[in-house]
Amino acid sequence: MLTPAMVEGYDAVPAVERQRLLRYLEAVIAFRRMPMHAAVAFNAVYFGYDLGGDGYGRSPLRLDDFPAVALGECAAALPVGAMVCVATGSDPLFAEIVYKEGAHPDIGELGEVPGWVSGAPAGAEGPGKPGSEASPRCPELLVPDPHAFGPGVSLSPAQLHRLCNHQRWINEDGHLVVEARYPSQEAAQRDDLSAYTDYLMTTARAQLLSPFVPVSIADLVGSTDDEAIRAGLLRLLGTVQRILTSSDLLRTWGPYAMSRSALAAGWRDSGPLGGDDLRTLAATVERAATPSRRRYGPTAPTTVYTAVGPRLRAFPGAKELLKGVGYAVAVCRANVALADVIQRDSEQGLFANGTRVVLDDAFQGGGVWRSRNPGDTEAPSNPLAPAGLGWTSTMGREPEPEPEPADLPLPDDGVLGPSELLQAGQDEFIWRLPLRLAHLIDGCLPLGSPIAEELQRAFGRLPVLRLELDHPGGTLDAAEAAQNTVAELGSETGCLTGIVWPLDYFPGLMLQLHWRRGSRSIRVVTSRLDQPVQVGDRIVGHYYDPCVLTREDAPGSDRNGDTAVGLGPRQLVMRTVRRCGLLTVDGHALLDRSGLPFAVYGRLPSRRQSAVLEAAVERLLTERLLEPAVGSRDSTGQPHFPARFGQRVIPLIGYRPVRVRVRHPWGATGSADEPMRMQYVPGHLRRLRPGCSPSETQRTAFREHCRRLGKADGWELPEGYTFVTEHTRGQ
Q1: Rounded CA separation 432/513 (Å)
Q2: Sequence-ordered strand ranges (E) for 576-658
Q3: Helix 275-287 crosses helix 260-268 at what angle (to 10 degrees)?
């Protein structure tokens, strides 16, 4: 199910592999009947979740490796996806953490939230008091799935009921409320997938690198180096999340994916927490800040914060539905319902009654929604992006409207992507230029002054010319390979318009154009590399301009548009460095680190946004997607690299487009819709028929496989299995 292409990023995965994994994950979600976090989806495919009813019961997971956790204790923070052992008075309870949220003690039973709690950092002690502990603590509610390991390991319903009644190891709802301890504030602010990556590389390292899994992450990455495994694992988790998001049958709320049919059934349900209660919840949030009628004078602005989880408990008959994983189902369904109402009935969160409703905190209490009246005094923003205005307003000043990322225009570097005339003979013109992002978006291609003049003399100002594309090793259909275009030759250079560029074409792809005098056809040729390489998240099989690729293939830029809206902090940092950094001839980009926040937003952002960007920078540096450098600044404020003698030294961050050879080039050629002719199969275990045993050769091969994965000697094949060595096979 998992392939080496998936550790390179979503865009590198052939369509047939995406669909195969998506169909399996959709089946798992339908079987488990709960929102599936991207980390839980990774567990299912990596460790092998059995849809026949055994769950992880037949997986290579070793129950003795699971960390122990208990109700009310203070312990290291656990991410969603962690496999745990709940210590009880009798049989241990093994479970998978499938959902978690903040459980701040100041949140009321009806969902009322003090403003400072919404968006507060971990360990905050009160309004304007972020806390001083180096290892902040945060009360968290964990929802375990006690049936994840099948009937052979799970406790019986009677045993679970008895544990809930005792409320010593789990609470009456079957949940765990713990005091989570984070190693640092930066660790507490990491996104879910980064936190789970850290967990797998440390606490759960033994199960991640187990030689018994179907395909080890070390095999997928092609290395046993920790940094390579960490980076590949993070990209693999991102691929799984993107695949979940791409499904037509699923709906996502943050990192959780749900069945659309289950959501629709929830709206149709007339019982507790059904459609009527969801409409009541939406109306309650909308009217929460509506001021009471006053006879004289204007009303003061009112702001109310409502937590979804506790508010759901106030509905009659909801108690039983909020036990176990049902709580995760109800909370995610309610948040999706609120998001749908806001998108349908308001203008960026502003309702007709003057109240503006926005999501303020996605973690505490299952999601904290902010209602403010009058809401038209605030600048509009994305109502579904957690703003943390509650906490911001307690930091000694009124909260300012959060700035949106600035849409950085494509920079003109003077020599970026120049056209080069190779031949101007009596019979033929040959010239070369890199494809630009503007060409892909607008469907055009500049011609250059000498060619445009010759064409205008021969055919007039608006001739119809035939464009013939030759893309060896790529995929072209007949309509793309030969197409009619209109040449606009009135300007000095002229250009071809109305071009439909193939999907294989990307910013920076080098094009060589041929035009014979008197002909109405222009031939465009690309040249294959000797060996495909991976540059960033893109696998490149043809010659390209590294400067154009750095600038114009940045996050948020594709043939559908060029915008920073909707990008996460990591993508914003990467986009800004690639767009604004000093560009070198080999595609490196270097940016003054202190100027990053201003470059992202076009003005000084809030302290919270600056902290988020700084955390994203540190993470990218750790993963070696960015690299630190040192430059200098002269008396006029101009930065320089390398640092110049006598000038003030400044820290820089740089994007280095590392070229990585593709191990199996057949996986990246041909149409994504066609099956691969050859497939690489890593070493894996295979169950034997009863009475059969593995040969000594296979036992030796398995021990060698363990050594390659970094395991110590002494690993032996489990009873009833043999080892299949790595090989290639045709399809």
Answers
A1: 6
A2: 582-583, 589-592, 627-633, 639-640, 648-655
A3: 80
Report yes or no: 420 and 443 within 8 Å, Cβ to Cβ. no
Burial 364-397 (b: 16+ CB within 10 A, else e): bbbbbbbbbbbbeebeebebbebbbbbbbbbbee
Other Cβ atoms within 10 Å of 98 Cβ, number: 25
* Beta-bridge partners for 177: 141
Spatial separation of the C-alpha atoms in residues 284 and 338, rounded to whole Å: 11
Return the number of other C-beta atoms located less than 10 Å from residue 678's C-beta. 12
Q: Give the domain ranges of the chain.
A: 4-108+118-257, 261-392, 420-544, 553-583+589-656, 683-730
* 190 backbone φψ class: left, alpha, beta (φ>0; ψ -120 to 50): beta
Identify the pLDDT of residue 711: 61
DSSP-derived 3-state class of residue 622: helix
CB 203 within 8 A of CB 209: no
Q: Average pLDDT, stretch 163-189? A: 85
Structure tokens at 477: 């259909």
Cα(352)–Cα(356) distance, integer angstroms: 9
What percent of the chain has pLDDT above 90?
Answer: 32
Residues 6+ apart with CB under 8 A from 440: 501, 505, 506, 507, 558, 559
Rounded to an integer, what is the distance from CA 489 to the centroid of its chain? 44
CA 356, CA 345: separation in Å to the nearest integer? 11
How far, in Å, CA of 53 to CA of 546, rounded?
51
- Per-residue pLDDT at 409: 65
Residues 6+ positions from 485 with CB-CB distance below 8 Å: 464, 465, 466, 467, 496, 497, 498, 499
pLDDT tens digits, one per residue of 619-644: 888 778 888 888 888 888 788 887 88
**Inter-residue contact 31 to 51 (CB < 8 Å):** yes
- Given a cut of 90, whether residue 128 has pLDDT beyond it is no
Give the phi and the psi of residue 650 in degrees, each rounded to 5.
Answer: -130, 150
Torsion, CA 511, CA 514, CA 515, CA 521, rounded to 10: -70
pLDDT of 133: 83
- Residue 211, token pair as written in the block: 């030689």
Contacts of 436 (CB under 8 A, 6+ apart): 410, 417, 507, 548, 552
Short-list 473, 475, 471, 472, CA closest to 671: 475
8 Å CB contact between 621 and 653:
yes
358 pLDDT band (50/70/90 cuts)?
A: very high
Left, alpha or beta for 514 (phi > 0: left; psi -120 to 50: alpha)? beta
For 275-293, b where at least 16 C-beta lie within 10 A, e where not — what string? bebbeebbebbbebbbeee
557 membership: H or E segment, kind and range: strand 557-558
Q: Is the pTM of this model over 0.85?
A: no
CA distances from residue 142 to 86, 167, 177 in whole angstroms, order as listed: 12, 15, 6
Bridge-based pairing of strands 420-424 and 428-434 is antiparallel
Looking at domain 420-544, its CATH architecture is Beta Barrel (2.40)
Q: Between these two residues, 293 and 194, which has the higher pLDDT value? A: 194
Interior/surface letters 708-722, b for 16+ CB within 10 angstroms, e for the rest: ebbbeeebebeeebb
19 CB contacts (<8 Å, ≥6 apart)?
none
Structural element, H or E, at residue 326: helix 326-345
